[in-house]
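Before we proceed, please read the two lines closing this message. Let me know whether the structure tokens fit the sequence:

…
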Amino acid sequence: MKRILAGLILTAILLTLTACSSQEPKTVVIASKPHSEQYILAEMLSLLIENHTDIKVEKKLGIGGGTSNIHPAMLRGDFDIYPEYTGTGLLFVLKEDLITDSDELYKRVQDRYLEEYNIKWLGLYGFNNTYALAVKESTAQTYNLKTYDDLALASNDLVFGAEYDFFERDDGYEALKDAYGFEFKDTKEMDIGLKYEAIGSDEVDVINAFSTDGLIKQYNLKVLEDNKNFFPAYQAATLIRKETLDKYPELEEVLEKLTGQISDDEMIQMNYQVEKENMDPRDVAEQFLKAKGLI
């Protein structure tokens, strides 16, 4: 009888161990596009999950083609989470017409992504990496420039520089000129990599840029306010597959910790640290999250 009882106990233990070992580990896959801002954001998401849950994070960072390859992979279930921008979601993925109101745009991508793709947009981080016009701080002070309307009043004294395709696009220079009435003294077409050098050496006075570019800090530039909302909003937020969220509901509260936490200036600073000070994106992300008390 004792042998039978011992055998039953041993069998029960072995069955329990087998069941435990057969359980899949809790894992999510985080992806990013191939540029410094995305590396930093993806590392923030990874650190938040690692510090506040028992879920293992697998990172697939720097995906070539960006949204064009990450979005289909999200639909297939290859990736679970990645940082995205509202303007990209509306114009590139959903292929809808521009919505100038940033709140309405955000609501639209939230609704459509959930309906069409079963993907949820979480809260906005706080910064807007949109197209922008930038001038040197000294130029802004000389001409009292704060908005694009201010720039229009001074434009006949200034030289504008941008990459070639900005002058060719339907939503580029000519449309912007019509919207604000710019009449620059001269315009210069140049390689995208030379714009900052050109404004730094006073070859041009105004350039088009991305509003959280780290080079803005390096060249001490001021991003002017697009007061008529000509450019669409590209506010950043976390995208997560609804299936993943249903499986690990604790992720929503954890990932929402980034909501409203990152300003344009803070993102510029972090991009600068990676691009010009050669800091590791994970170190930059960790430093930021600790300073905010998020980890």
The chain has two domains: 28-128+234-291, 131-223. Strands lie at 27-31, 56-60, 81-85, 119-128, 131-136, 159-163, 186-190, 206-210, 221-223, 235-241.
